[in-house]
Amino acid sequence: MSTGFEKIGSDAQLQNHWIRRLVAFIIDSIIAWIGVMIIMAIIFVPFMIAAAGDWPWFVFNPFVSPLFTGILSILYFVILESWYGWTFGKRIMNLETVRTDGKKPPLDAAFIRNISKIYWIIVLLDVIIGLATPGDPNQKVTDRLAGTTVVPATSRRTQSPPTPPTA
């Protein structure tokens, strides 16, 4: 079985898939970062004002707290993907996250596939290892562990009709 790295050089569709995923990830990262900045401002600005210069504000500097940013980013990705099957970046890029059977991922699968987003280097390794190992070249390692994949949004709609709401 060949690896994603062997296919990506000659497969325009696979290249397009990963470029769209990268752009979606960048959009989502910006959205998550803005959310983190707002939350940190709400939480920490009152402390800085109360301290009136005596408080070591650098302790709460968001640029030195990647763990806080990573945790909130994971929450962003997990909640949106388990509720809707997409994040805002994926929606813009016409992608969605599905289980390998085509259904929306449950909360646990969404968490497993997004745990690597705690820090950008781990996400990069997740993608590189996924492409370097045999298997579906559209999946990163955590997608394989979670039984999920990212597909064009139209492909899921054509696979199965939406389930009507029950009364």
Give a verbal description of the structure:
By secondary structure, this protein is mainly α. The chain has helices at 4-8, 12-51, 66-83, 88-92, 107-114, 120-132, 141-146, 153-159, and strands spanning 95-99, 148-152. The chain has one domain. The longest helix is centred in the N-terminal third of the chain and has 40 residues, at 12-51. It is globular. The protein starts with a helix and ends in an 8-residue tail after the last helix.
Largest sheet: 2 strands, antiparallel
Global structural class? mainly alpha
Q: How many strand units?
A: 2
Poorly predicted regions = none
Give the spatial strand order of the biggest sheet. 1-2
Give the domain tally: 1
Average pLDDT, all residues:
86
Shape: globular
Order of helices and strands: HHHHEHHHEH
What quaternary form is this? Answer: single chain
- What is the straight-line distance between the termini? 47 Å
What would you report as the Rg, rounded to the nearest angstrom? Answer: 19 Å
Strand content: 5-15%
Number of helices: 8
Secondary structure: helix percent: 55-70%
